[in-house]
Design goal:
The complex is a heterodimer of chains A (417) and B (603). Chain A is an all-alpha fold. Chain A contains 24 helices and no strands. In chain B, the strands form 5 sheets. Chain B has a 6-stranded antiparallel β-sheet. The termini of chain B are far apart. Classes of the chains: A mainly alpha (417), B alpha+beta (603).
Chain lengths: 417, 603
C-alpha cells in the first residue's frame, strides 16, 4: 500500500474504535408483517415484548403462538431480504407479501405481478395495455387502475377492463388477436395498431382492416387449437376463451398451459383434446363427433384411449318436449288469466294460441319469436331450461330480440355466433 | 434550350455554371455543387443535364444563404419550347435531392411530357403500405420498356423510388416546400373534369403510373398522422392539387371521410355530421391518422361552400378549441357559472363582449349549465357538434360567464365538508364490515335492505336481490360425474372471498349493496332493478368469478356457485316474501344444471 493511502489511527484524539454502524433496515420484519396484514399491530407488540423477554427471535414467537405459519414467515424474510438488497421497494414488498398470503402465490409469481404495477412514471410494460392505449381504446388512467385492480382481484387486465365496461368483448378479442399476430410476426406492431384503431371505430373484427391493409389474406388462425374446440363444444364460453387467450399472449404460455392455469381443463384432458384436434384436422373425425367427445371431457378425465373407446358408443338423443305457453307462463311473460283468455279465444276462432296471444295484445311479436327460438334451443340441448327462462324474461322486460339477449348474457353458442 | 423560351428561369447574378452533363447528376456532383454554393454565398450554382432518350433538359441549382439552415435546391425542366420549375427543396440530404431528381426525370420521361409541376409529397406523410403486386408489376414493366437508367444514378435509389410517392429505399424521402405539396403520381394529369362519372381514365391519359384501384384491396397513395399534418393543410393541398379520391381520417372517437373530385370536396361525413359541418369538424381534429384512397368517387354531394371558406372557419374553430383546452377544458372538466343568479338581461349584456352568435341560443345553453356540470353533461343534455359548442363555450369563457375547473376540483364526497367529523361516519361504516372478508355484515345488509324497501313502498321503485353461495368442492374428483359431490362443500377461505368481492365490485353498480347473508351465503341488493336485469348482473358475477381461478387451486371446476334472483313487486310485496323467493330460487339453483335461477320461473 502506498504511503499516501495509509491513515494511521490516533486514539489520543478521542476517536472511538467502533465497528462500522450497521445500515438501518428499510423495514423491520414485524412492520412488514403488519403492513401486509399477516398479523395485526397488537399481536406484533405482545410477541415483540415476549421475544425480548425470552431472548428468542420474534419469528419463533409468532410461529409458536400460532400467529404465522413458518412457511409464510420464511417467505416474509425472503421478501425483506429483497427489500434490503434494493430489488423491491417497501411498498412493492408489502404488496408481494399480500399476494403471497391472499392468493397463495410463490414469491416469483407475486414479484412478477407486482413488477407489472404502474409506477410514478406511468404504466409499466403491459402488452395488452400498451396496445389498447396506443389504439386509443382505453386511457392511461383506466389502464393503470385496471392493472392494480387486476392484481388485487387476480384477474387479467382485459377482464378488468371488460368488467368496468371500458372495452367490449369484441374489442378485447381483436386486441388479443393483434398481439398473437405481432408475436407470430404476421404483421408489424404499427400495422396491427392501425388496423385495431380502424376496427374499433368501424366496429369490425380486426381481420377485416388487416385484410384491407393487405397484411393478411385470410384468418391466420383457423380452428387450430383446443381452446377453440372447447369453445365450439360449449365447455367454455367466449369470455373464458378470451381469458385463456389473454394469458397465452401476455404471459408467453401455450394455449394448453393457459387453459390449465385458468382451470378449464386438466393436463390429462389437454392431451386427449389435442389428440381429438389432430384427428379432426386429419379428417379421422367429423366435427360433430369431436364436439360430442369434447363435451364428455367436461365430466370425466379421460385419456385418449378412453376417448376413442367412447367413439363406439352412440349417445342417445333425447329431445325434451317443451310447451311455449308454459315457458311464457313460468317466466312471467304472460299472466295465467290472460293465457286462459287467449286459449279460449283461440279455440273459438280456431286459430293458433300464438296468433290469439298476439291478436289480444297479451304478447309482443319479439317475445313470441324469442319463446319459439328458445323452445327450439332447449330441445336441441343448446341451452338449459333455466337459461331459456332467464333469457325469455330478459327479452320480455327489455324488448330485445333473442340474439341480443344471448349476446348480452354471453350465452350465444359458437355455432350461432 | 434553357433561357430560350418563356417563362425563363430567373437569371441569377453571378451564377456559377458547372459543365453540362448528359446524364442525371451523380452524388459527387451534388457534393461539388453544395460546396461551391457554400463557399460562394449567396451565389447560385447550376448544373445543366439532359435526360437520356428525351429532348428534355434540366437545370439543377443550389443556393446557400445565411438565413437558411439548409441549401435550397431548385429543379427546372425545359422541353425546348417552354421551361418550368418542377420543385424547390431546402435540404442538406444529398440522397433526398438525388431521389427527387431521379423521380422527376423518371416521371416526366415516363409520361413523355409533363404538363404539371413536379409532384411532391406531403411533408409528414409516410407511405408504409406495400405497393400491390399489380402496381409494382406495371411500374417495373414501364421502367424496363422505356427507361435505361442513367449511369450516374445509383440503382438502389431507383429501385427504392416509388412512383406512388413512397419514401425511397433509404427511407430518406422528406418534405418538399413546393406549393403543390401533396400531389402524388397517381394524380390524374388531364386536368378538368372530363372523366367524372364512372368511366375510368385510360392509361394514356394518365401515364403509365396510373393504376386503377383493385376491386377488393384498397390502395392508399398517401397516409400519415394528424399530429404531424394538420387536416386543414391536408384538405387544402388535396384541393389545390386537384386530386380525386377518398380521404379517410381515423380519429380517437370516430372515422371521417371526404370525397374529392378533381380537388373539389364533394361529400363529407363524420359521426353523423354531414357536408360543410363535417369538414369543419374534421379540421378541429388533432389526433389520429389519415389515408387517401385515389379514384374512389361518390355521386352524392353535400359539401357546398367554397372549400377555402370552410377551411378558414375550421381553423378559427380549432384556434378556439386550443384556447379552451389551454384553459383546462376536457370532456370531464366542469363548467362552473361565475355567478349563479344572473338575469337574462345581465347575461345578454355580458355576451355583447363576445363574438356575435345567436344570443337566445346562448342564454338557453347557459341556463342548462347546472351544479357540478361537465362538458360531457352538457353534450349529453344538448347534443351539439363541435362547430356549435366550441364558439358557445368560448364566448361564455371570454365573457366571464363561466370558469373551467378540473374534474378533481369539484368531485368531493358528500360529507367532506364535515372535515374531521366525517371520521366518525367512516368508523361506523368500517364497523359494518366483516374484517376477514371486507364484505358488509348480514345485519348491515338488512339495514340497507329495509331502507330500500321503504323506497319501494313510497315510490314504487322495483328492487331485486341476488342471493348466492360460493363454496369449494371438498374433494373434487374429476372421475365422477357432476352432481355426485354436492353435499361435500367447504366455505371459501377469506382471501378467496376478498378476491370475489373485488371482482363483484367491478361488475356491480356503485349503488348496489353487497353483503353477507346469514352465516355462509352472500347477497347483492339492486335498487330500482327488475328481475331480468338482476339476472343479467348475476350472470356477469358468475362469469367474473369463474373466468380465472379466484386463488390458486380454486378454479371453475372446484368452485360451487348458485344464484337465486328475486324481485319486488314480481315476487310479492314484503321483504319476507322477497327473501323467501330468493332463497327458493337459490336452493333450486344448487340442484340445477345451470346455477342461476330467477324466482318468478317457479311461481
Amino acid at each position: 500500500m502506498s504511503e499516501e493511502y495509509f491513515i494511521p489511527f490516533n486514539f489520543s484524539e478521542g476517536q472511538g474504535l467502533q465497528p462500522e454502524a450497521e445500515k438501518p433496515l428499510p423495514i423491520k420484519i414485524g412492520d412488514l408483517l403488519v403492513q401486509s396484514t399477516m398479523i395485526d399491530q397488537e399481536t406484533l407488540d405482545s410477541c415483540t415484548a415476549l421475544a425480548v423477554k425470552m431472548h428468542v427471535p420474534l419469528g419463533r414467537i409468532l410461529s409458536m403462538e400460532g400467529h404465522l405459519a413458518e412457511e409464510l414467515l420464511g417467505k416474509a424474510l425472503d421478501v425483506q431480504d429483497l427489500i434490503v438488497k434494493g430489488s423491491l421497494s417497501v411498498t412493492n414488498g408489502v404488496t408481494v407479501l399480500k399476494l403471497i398470503k391472499q392468493q397463495a402465490l410463490t414469491i416469483e409469481e407475486a414479484v412478477a405481478r407486482v413488477n407489472a404495477l404502474p409506477t410514478a412514471a406511468g404504466v409499466k410494460a403491459s402488452r395488452l395495455g400498451d396496445l389498447l392505449r396506443e389504439s386509443a381504446a382505453a386511457q392511461q388512467k383506466q389502464i393503470e387502475k385496471a392493472i392494480v385492480d387486476g392484481i388485487n382481484a387476480s384477474l387479467p387486465l382485459g377482464q378488468v377492463l371488460l368488467n368496468r365496461g371500458v372495452i367490449t368483448v369484441d374489442l378485447l378479442n381483436s386486441a388479443l388477436l393483434g398481439l398473437r399476430i405481432i408475436r407470430d410476426g404476421i404483421a408489424t406492431r404499427s400495422q396491427v395498431l392501425q388496423a385495431l384503431r380502424s376496427a374499433r371505430l368501424r366496429k369490425l373484427p380486426l381481420l377485416q382492416p388487416l385484410m384491407e391493409l393487405g397484411v393478411v389474406e385470410e384468418d391466420p388462425y383457423p380452428y387450430s387449437d383446443i381452446g377453440y374446440l372447447m369453445y365450439l363444444s360449449g365447455l367454455i364460453n367466449e369470455r373464458e376463451l378470451i381469458s385463456a387467450r389473454e394469458i397465452e399472449v401476455t404471459e408467453d404460455k401455450s394455449i394448453d398451459e393457459a387453459l390449465i392455469s385458468c382451470g378449464f381443463c386438466s393436463e390429462k384432458s389437454v392431451t386427449a383434446l389435442n389428440e381429438l384436434l389432430n384427428m379432426l384436422m386429419e379428417g379421422a373425425l367429423q366435427e360433430d363427433q369431436a364436439i360430442q367427445l369434447t363435451k364428455k371431457l367436461e365430466t370425466v378425465d379421460w385419456d385418449i384411449a378412453q376417448v376413442l373407446q367412447a367413439l363406439e358408443e352412440q349417445e342417445e338423443y333425447f329431445e325434451e318436449e317443451l310447451e311455449v305457453a308454459e315457458l311464457l307462463k313460468v317466466t312471467g311473460c304472460i299472466h295465467p288469466e290472460d293465457l286462459e283468455v287467449a286459449t279460449q279465444k283461440a279455440l273459438k276462432k280456431r286459430q293458433s294460441l300464438a296468433a290469439s296471444l298476439l291478436e289480444s295484445g297479451f304478447m309482443t311479436q319479439m317475445t313470441m319469436d324469442g319463446a319459439n327460438t328458445l323452445k327450439s334451443l332447449v330441445e336441441q340441448k343448446i341451452l338449459d331450461l333455466e337459461q331459456a327462462r332467464t333469457l325469455l324474461a330478459y327479452i320480455h322486460e327489455n324488448d330485445v330480440d333473442i340474439a341480443s339477449a344471448m349476446k348480452d348474457f354471453d350465452w350465444l353458442p359458437a355455432s350461432m355466433s | 434550350m434553357f433561357g430560350s423560351k418563356k417563362p425563363q428561369p430567373p437569371p441569377s447574378r453571378g451564377r456559377i455554371n458547372l459543365p453540362n452533363i448528359k446524364h442525371v447528376p451523380s452524388m459527387d456532383i451534388y457534393q461539388t455543387m453544395f460546396e461551391q454554393a457554400r463557399d460562394n454565398q449567396p451565389r447560385d450554382v447550376e448544373q445543366l443535364f439532359v435526360a437520356p432518350n428525351t429532348n428534355l433538359t434540366y437545370s439543377l441549382s443550389v443556393k446557400v444563404e445565411s438565413g437558411r439552415n439548409n441549401p435550397l435546391w431548385t429543379l427546372l425542366e425545359d422541353d425546348g419550347t417552354e421551361a418550368q420549375m418542377l420543385w424547390q427543396q431546402e435540404s442538406g440530404d444529398f440522397d433526398l435531392v438525388n431521389d427527387m431528381v431521379c423521380m422527376s426525370v423518371q416521371s416526366t420521361r415516363a409520361m413523355d411530357r409533363s404538363k404539371t409541376g413536379m409532384p411532391a409529397l406531403d411533408p409528414n406523410a409516410s407511405l408504409t403500405q406495400p405497393v400491390p403486386a399489380m402496381q409494382q408489376e406495371s411500374r417495373f414493366q414501364d421502367d424496363s420498356v422505356g427507361f435505361n437508367s442513367p449511369p450516374a444514378v445509383n440503382p438502389a435509389d431507383l429501385a427504392g423510388y416509388n412512383p406512388e410517392g413512397s419514401p425511397s429505399s433509404s427511407g430518406s424521402f422528406h418534405p418538399t416546400q413546393s406549393s403543390s405539396s401533396l400531389s402524388t403520381f397517381q394524380q390524374p394529369q388531364s386536368g378538368g373534369v372530363d372523366y367524372l362519372g364512372d368511366k375510368m381514365p385510360s392509361q394514356s391519359q394518365h401515364g403509365p403510373r396510373f393504376t386503377a384501384p383493385e376491386p377488393q384491396l384498397e390502395t392508399k397513395s398517401l397516409e400519415g398522422s394528424v399530429e404531424s399534418t394538420q387536416i386543414s393543410t391536408l384538405i387544402s393541398n388535396l384541393n389545390n392539387d386537384g386530386l380525386t379520391g377518398r380521404l379517410e381520417i381515423l380519429g380517437d372517437e370516430s372515422v371521417g371521410e371526404v370525397y374529392f373530385l378533381n380537388g373539389v370536396a364533394m361529400y363529407a361525413h363524420v359521426a353523423g355530421i354531414l357536408g360543410d359541418n363535417a369538414v369543419r369538424e374534421l379540421i378541429t381534429w388533432r389526433k389520429g391518422t389519415f389515408a387517401f384512397f385515389p379514384d374512389e368517387k361518390t355521386e352524392v354531394r353535400n359539401v357546398l361552400k367554397p372549400m377555402m371558406d370552410t377551411v378558414m372557419e375550421g381553423i378559427a374553430l380549432l384556434d378556439k378549441k386550443k384556447h379552451l383546452e389551454r384553459m383546462g377544458l376536457t370532456t370531464d372538466a366542469y363548467l362552473v357559472k361565475k355567478s349563479r343568479n344572473m338575469s337574462d338581461t345581465e347575461v345578454r349584456l355580458m355576451l355583447t363582449k363576445g363574438e356575435p352568435l345567436n344570443v337566445d341560443k346562448q342564454i338557453e345553453v347557459y341556463r342548462t349549465i347546472g351544479h357540478k356540470y361537465s362538458l360531457n353533461d352538457l353534450l349529453r343534455d344538448r347534443p351539439m357538434e363541435s362547430a356549435d359548442w366550441i364558439p358557445l363555450i368560448f364566448n361564455f369563457l371570454t365573457c366571464e360567464l363561466i370558469e373551467i375547473k378540473p374534474p378533481d376540483a369539484v368531485k368531493v364526497g358528500a360529507l367532506d365538508f364535515l372535515g374531521d367529523g366525517k371520521k366518525e361516519v367512516d368508523a361506523l361504516l368500517e364497523s359494518m364490515v366483516r374484517q376477514e372478508t371486507g364484505v358488509l355484515s348480514y345485519s348491515a345488509f338488512l339495514l340497507y335492505l329495509q331502507h330500500e324497501f321503504y323506497r319501494f313502498e313510497a315510490y314504487g321503485w322495483p328492487m331485486s336481490i341476488i342471493l348466492f353461495e360460493m363454496n369449494r368442492k371438498k374433494e373434487y374428483d374429476s372421475n365422477q360425474k357432476r352432481g355426485d359431490l354436492q353435499t361435500m362443500f367447504d366455505v371459501l377461505p377469506p382471501s378467496a372471498v376478498q378476491n370475489a368481492a373485488r371482482r363483484i365490485e367491478m361488475v356491480k353498480r356503485p349503488l348496489d349493496i353487497l353483503g353477507h347473508y346469514e352465516m355462509l351465503e352472500y347477497a347483492l341488493l339492486l335498487p330500482n332493478t327488475r328481475t331480468a336485469s338482476a339476472a343479467y348482473v348475476a350472470n356477469r358475477i358468475l362469469q367474473t368469478l369463474t373466468v380465472t381461478p379466484l386463488i390458486k387451486n380454486l378454479d371453475k371446476k372446484s368452485l360451487k356457485l348458485a344464484f337465486g334472483v328475486a324481485n319486488l313487486p314480481a315476487d310479492g310485496d314484503s321483504v319476507q316474501q322477497l327473501l323467501s323467493a330468493a332463497r327458493k330460487a337459490k336452493d333450486r339453483a344448487v340442484e340445477a344444471n345451470f346455477p342461476l335461477i330467477i324466482s318468478k320461473s317457479y311461481k
